[in-house]
Amino acid sequence: MRQDLTGMASVDPGLSEARLLSVLDTAVDGICVIDETGRILTLNRACERLFGYTAAEAVGENVRMLMPESYAGRHDNFLSSYLTTGERKIIGYGREVVARHKNGREFPMELSVGEVKSPEGRQFVGIMRDLRPRKIQEERLNRMQSQLVHFARVNAMDEMGAAIAHELNQPLTAVMLYLQAISRKLGTSEADPDGRLSDILGKAVREAQRAGQIIQRMRQFVENREAERRSTNVEALIDEALELVLLGQYTLSVSVVRDDEEDLPPVDVDPVQIQQILVNLIRNALEVVKDAEERWIRISSHRDGDDVVIEVADSGPGIPQANLRNLFRAFSSTKKKGLGLGLAISKSIAQSHGGDLSVDAGGDGRGAIFTLKLPLDSGDGMLAEA
Ligand SMILES: Nc1ncnc2c1ncn2[C@@H]1O[C@H](COP(=O)(O)OP(=O)(O)O)[C@@H](O)[C@H]1O
Ligand SMILES: [Mg+2]
Description:
This protein is of the alpha+beta class.
């Protein structure tokens, strides 16, 4: 379309105005021609629909009328500076800009500007495409992605566990309040002269508080929430992920080794999302070592240049070559009950933080080592769970 149009206007000046207009009117894209001063010469039908002005209303007016106030003022400057210096601030393909409808509403559109040299002087041809349908698609995609991330997180904690954590919070709070009430009464009565009952009650309160914290953490983990960036201590993040995975695993016969470099600088991440990666990796590791002769997992963290690197290694059998190619793809599980979403989502979370997740497959008596890299300075990175 672009080439046709500009070609037509410059190469074949004999083309009648009426015919040119009728061709322009069949175009799906909005097309608007202006002169050197910004005056609208032609506005096709798609443009009329896009902006709500009829061609009769718009032709002869300054093209600023199609722009938001904040930009309109600068447009004349762009034009004159281009004409005097040749500096191309507005010429080019496919920039995303904000446009203004007749009713004042602003909307995103893609704008390509071409230049035409005509006998009457230089003219500029703008080709415009409404970006709203694409934006809506993008938003839907983002929403779906965030639901998937959330779904996988709930799945990692088991739906039951999440529901139970939710239900337990209230009775637990009540227990804590009752215990505190008794404790206050005891303090002022004769029934506990040596303070032993008070001690025991104090212990009960602390245990209830601890239970409450665990539930709190679990609820935060499975909650569906907006992505965020927060300065986060890596070691604490690993501690919490481990605590979540090991919840209720009283008979665990796997030794968990930690090796964290001292004084690691904090990383700017979404803590819950990074925890989600760690929970996935640690769970996978625990699952493969369950049947192994030696049973350990090792989680380490260290700084490597501008990255913080977290490794999760295990004493399992490693990953067969055949599984390696699709390992980070969705639905790549080799487990009877697996979803195969864990690694796919983990990798996309890592990348949305400007980092990456990779694997050393091991094998030949060596287990797998998963490496999570997070940049120390993520800049103003994109948000995964947008
Ligand atoms: N530490 C590991 N050692 C060996 N294989 C692994 C390891 N972690 C993951 N895998 C393999 O990768 C597959 C995909 O893992 P994941 O995406 O977490 O999905 P799921 O755990 O639901 O199967 C697993 O089914 C398993 O075959
Ligand atoms: Mg998994």
